[in-house]
Input
Amino acid sequence: MIIYGTALLATCHLLGIFLGDLLGQALGVKTNVGGVGIAMLLLIAARLFMQRREILPKLTELGVEYWGALYIPVVVAMAAQQDMVAALRGGPVAVLSAVTAVAVCAGVISAINRSERREEDPAPVPVLHDNPLLAEAE
Output
């Protein structure tokens, strides 16, 4: 039932594009605003909803994972290329905002990593085999 995963992805994509167009119209621009991002959020929400209700067969889940793994990098690469071209044409304000966004993301990730608790006593590393040469060196 991998085809159901593809159908779920296609449904989320079409709904995301539609909602992105509506958002663009609401903001007064004549373009899709975040349609692909909305589609991915819908796909994640639908998958989690179906998993919690236990109505998502394993093969369908594999189909969603497969297409999600392919879909996200391709769309991100396409969007990044378009955004970069638009930013370079838009002037220094667009480039400055992009650099600022990257710096803020890096700072937030760094803060999250520093706030994690570290284990006081890590688990011992298992010994796979005894090496007589290492025993003699000690």
Notes: The chain has a mean pLDDT of 77. The helical segments are 2-27, 35-52, 58-90, 92-115, 132-137. Residues 58-90 form the longest helix (33 residues). The radius of gyration is 23 Å.
